Structures are given as C-alpha cells and as structure tokens.
Amino acid sequence: MKFSKKTATLCAFALGVTLLAASAFADTMLGSGFQSLKDSIKTTMSKLTNDVDNFSANIIVSTKIDGQVISESTNDLKFDVTNKAKETREKIVKKGEITEFYKYDNENQIIYKNFEDDSYNVYEKRKYNNDNNKIVENPFEEEQAKDAEKILDAFVGSLQDVIEIEESGGKKMYTGNLSETQIPPLANAIASFVFKYSILDERNADRLDIPYPKSNIYLLNASGKAIEDEEGIVESGIFTASISAQDSKGIEHIYSLDFSVDIKDINNTVVVAPNLDGQKVTYNKEGYEFDNKYIGKYKNDIVKREGNSFVKVGERFIEIISIEDGNVKGKYYEVYNEGYDADNVRSFDFYSNYDESIHFTIIHYTNDKSENKTGIIHRTGTQNINVSFNAIIDEENGGYSYSNDDEEGFDNTFIRIFE
Amino acid sequence: MQIIKSVFINEIFKISKKKKITAALIFSMLSVIIAAIVEYSLNNFAGIRVTGNSEFSILILTILIYSLLPLFTTFICVDMFAGEFADHTIKFTLTGPASRAKVFLGKILAIATFIICNLIVVMIFSIVASLFLNSNLPNFFKILVSYFMAFLPIFIFALAAVLISNITRGPTSAFMLSIFVFLVFIGLNLVFPQIRSFLFTSFFDWFRLILGNYINYSKILRIFLILLGYGIMFCAAGYYLFEKKDI
C-alpha cells in the first residue's frame, strides 16, 4: 500500500495533533504537585472556617544560624468557630529570655494575661464590633489573595513540578525540595536583597548579637513537607528555607528559618475563658476612649512667623464640657492677643456620637462658613488630646484612615490646663 | 541519503555566509559578558550572588532561551524559507536533483545544526565565564543535560517559524508574525496558566526539572510528548505548505 505525499502529510499532521492534544490533556488533568497542594490548603482553610465547629493549631517558627537556634516562637491556638471564641498562647524564646503572651477572645470580651504579675486585663467589647465577624477568616476568599494566586501561578512555571505526592492509607504527603540550582535568579536576587537590607540589616544583627550577612548572599535551599488527611485537611506542614552569607570577616554562615504547623483536635477542642476568681483583674471598656476625667480645658499657642522668629499671637482652646457613654460635647475657640488683627477668629461647638465609628471619635461641627464638617479627637500622652478638624474619614473595605486639611500652622496637640 | 546530505551541506554553507551568524555569535558572547559583569558587580557591591552557588551557565541559558536564542533562530528560519522565496534564490535549490521533501528536510537539519551550535557556543562561553566568577568547579553534567534539553523547545519554535515563513509572502511579515506568535504564547502562559500544557513556550525552561533532587520523570515524558506532537504537527504543516508554494 502506497500513500500519496498529501495523505502522508495529513496523517503526520493528525498524528502530531493527537499526540499533542492527548499529552497536553493528560498533563492538565494530572496537574502538578504544586496545584494539588494549593488546592489542599484552600480546602483546609475553607473547611476550618465554614465546616468544622472547633479546632486547635500549633505553630512553631524558629530561626537558626549554623544550626543554633537564635529565636523560637511557639503558638498554641484554639478556635471555637461556632461560639466565636479564640484562645492564643505564645511563648517566645530569644537569646535565652522567655516572653509569654496569653489572649482569650470571644464575642463579649477580650482577656489578656500580664505574665509579670499574673494579673489580667479584661476589655468588654462594644456590640458594634460583633457584626458577622468570624473568629477565623479564610484568606483565600480575599480579593488580594486571589490576585496573588494568579501572579504566583503565572511565575512559578516549571517549578510547580518539584513537589512530589505520595499517597498511603488515605493520606497524601506532599514533599518539595528546591535546590539552589532550581531557584530562579530573580527570586534569589530579591530574596537575598530583602534578607540583607530588610530582615537582617546591620542594626537588627547588632541588636540580636548575630553575624551580619555582608556578602555572597544567596538562597541555599527551600524544602517543605505537608500531610493531608482523609478529609482533605492539611493536618501538618513543615517548611525550611536557608540562606548562605559571609559576615564582615568573610566567614560563611547558614541562616535558616523553620516553620511548622499542626492542625489537630478538630471538633474536639474546648475553648474556655480563664478563671478570674481570686485573680488581680483590671476591667476596661473597649472603645470608651473618653471618660469623665477628660472633661476640662485644653489649649495650645497660635504662633506666627515674623521674619526669622516665631511670635505667639494668641491661644487655641478646647473645652470638653460633657462625656456621657462615650459621647463627647465641647467647644473650640481662639483668643488672639490684643493688637493682633486676625483674619478669622474661629469659634464653634462640637459633639461626637459614640456609635458612629469603632475606630475614631468623630466630632461634628459647623465652621464659620456655616458648613457642616467632621474632625477627629483622640487622646495623646497621659492627659492631653489631639484634634484634627476638616477631616475626611474612610472606614470602607475593612480598613480605616483619615486625612485632614487644617489651616496652615495649626497645632493638633492640646495641653490640659489644670486650674 | 546522499542528496539530503548535499542539500544539508549546501544549506550549512549558505548559513555560514550570513552576517546574522556573526551577529548571533557576538550577541551571545556579549550577553554572557554582560551577565557576568552584572553577577560580579552585584556580588561585589551589594553582596548578593544572583546565581547562588549554582551554575552561571544555567542562569545564562534561562535568560537567552527566552530572548536571543529564539530571536536568531527566527532570523535563520525566515531567511532560509521566506527570504529565499522572496529573492527567488530558492529556484537554484528546487531546480536541482533534490525533491522538495529532501530540500525541506535538509533545511530543517541545517536549522537544527545552527541551534545546536548556538547552544554549544553559549555553553562554552558561560562555562569559561563561570570559572572566573565562582571558585567552585561547575557541575558539567547538569549543564550539558540542561543545554541538551533546551534544544528541543527552541527547535519546535524554529519549526513554527518555518511554518509561518511558508504561510507569509515576505521575510519581514514572516519575522514579525513569528515574534508575535512567540510573545502571544508567552503572554497566554502568564495570563492563563491553566492552559500552559497546550503552549510549547511554557516548556522552554523544562531543563529545570532535572536540576533538583527530585526528578519528575513522568512530567518530563509528558512534556517530551507534547513537544514531539508540536514538532510532528509543525513539520507536516510546514512541509505541506513548502510543497505547495509556487516559486
């Protein structure tokens, strides 16, 4: 049987298309270790935030130089997702010194432990805070994380195949080991630069009493291991990254970061508030920034520049007249020295509504042009206050910030006057 | 076989007479020198070693495989097909005793030889440079295997450029379209990473798969089959168009 040139060419073309399509489909369907691990982490976060009632997590982060531990932080976290309660215990060992931290957090209160005198601080929460807040959020639901994932997918390239998957007894084990030859030069350069100038700069190295990484800095390796249980939850993970660098004497050191996480006691974790009976406890109310002790008069100087010197031309006053349940009422006025001809002498009353913001005490006033304006007032130092007029407050998208446009030379800090 | 050999030698002779070969050599050498200077400066002034303790030659390959290597390969492919059709010099080859199939094969072999030579030159330059940069001896085996593996995706791109050269009417449009296709494929890989298995440009750095402790052989086989599929497809389509093209 003899084929014509055209038939043979078409057959070859069809063979090429078939081979390409079949292999590419198989490759897409099989995916990569990186994709599987990523999916597993996303499933874990989704289940922990939505499906389980409670769980515990243990996180250990340690930094080492030449195998010797420099600092180690151990976090024991307990989450009661259903009852919106969380307990955090942290222990940091740095240069032999131990620092401990304890926090209990539920819908109504936050309790901190002061380990110096074993006392507790209890903050009663404002109800305003409790709207639909989860005790643990899924970071993969954030828009930012979705964009970061796309960028990572685009640039990880063939490195996504360095993660190996082994399955046994219904569990999956992900192992990845990135050697120095596989680390992309750009990633190496950026990581080394950040390490030298940001993470362990000369000042930090001095403070921690460790050798400063001066030259020949490069990422030595990065490795990790994660185990996914039968339910698709990553029950444990270990990650290690090492950087090699020479100090100012030319001696080579290996700086390592070890990170491990264990997710355990799923639906078997009980989160209870600490027993405060017989303990030294200080009670506070969250958000009550101002109470009666702030009622009083505050002032600062109005100063103008004349030639090459400063001249006091008057005083600004703030009088806080009343504070009831966090609602502040007061007045602002300016008094100029006799003989000084001011363009505009401001004077107005202001008030705040406690429930208006959880981040700021927002004051409302009407300016000399009869415009309704807002400002911010907050405490500074022990007894003084800081005031910003004509402020624009942004508390959208979970964040909060403000900017203000006061007159030139306006001093925001007002000093308490004790008669 | 003798005819194919003659066509091949003829094509190699033609390539060797092109100024683009000298340009390719000079630019490859310059790239190695510039990269070596950057690496040396970063290490001396900022204390950062871009290549770590690894092979400078692999850094060079990673950079050039997405830049100069495809660029000069496109030049050669366009010249050997669209260029010869445009200036009618293809007549001398096609009116000879060799069939179009043998001419096509001879040209493809010549392109493959050019790619191999280009890779060898870059590899030698970069190994020499790395001897000055690093006190440690490079891992010659890994470098050799990496450059060997780098040949296949570049060759597939060359076949794509040959196909485009046989579709378009002139060398300029062939060159522009080849570069455009290359950039579109790279862009698609960045924007839609989920379809990366269907894009041959995703595998330009597939040699990285053999650099680590864990070597994913099944992935290497899948990529090889994908590239082979592309190769057969481009070769068949390129030849079909070459066969049909009027002088």
What does this structure look like?
The complex is a heterodimer of chains A (419) and B (247). Chain A contains five helices and 22 strands. Chain A has a twelve-stranded mixed sheet. In chain A, strands 13-14-15-16-17-18-19-22 form an eight-stranded antiparallel β-barrel. Chain A has a two-stranded antiparallel ribbon with strand order 20-21. Chain A has two domains: 232 residues, no CATH class; 126 residues, no CATH class. The longest helix of chain A is centred in the N-terminal third of the chain and has 26 residues. Chain A is α+β, with helices and mostly antiparallel strands and 419 residues long. With 247 residues, chain B is an all-alpha fold. Chain B is 76% helix and 0% strand. The mean pLDDT of chain B is 88. Chain B starts with a helix and ends with a helix. At the A-B interface, α1, α3, β8, α4 and β9 of A face α2, α3, α8 and α9 of B.
Total strand segments of chain B: 0
Envelope shape of chain A: elongated
Distance between the termini of chain A: 115 Å
Q: Low-confidence stretches of chain B at least 5 residues in length (pLDDT < 50)?
A: none
The helix-and-strand class of chain A reads alpha+beta
**Termini distance of chain B?**
25 Å
**How is the main sheet of chain B built?**
none
Gyration radius over CA of chain B: 19 Å
The SSE string of chain A, one letter per element, is HHEEEEEEHEEHHEEEEEEEEEEEEEE
Taken together, the total number of domains of chain B comes to 1
Number of domains of chain A: 2
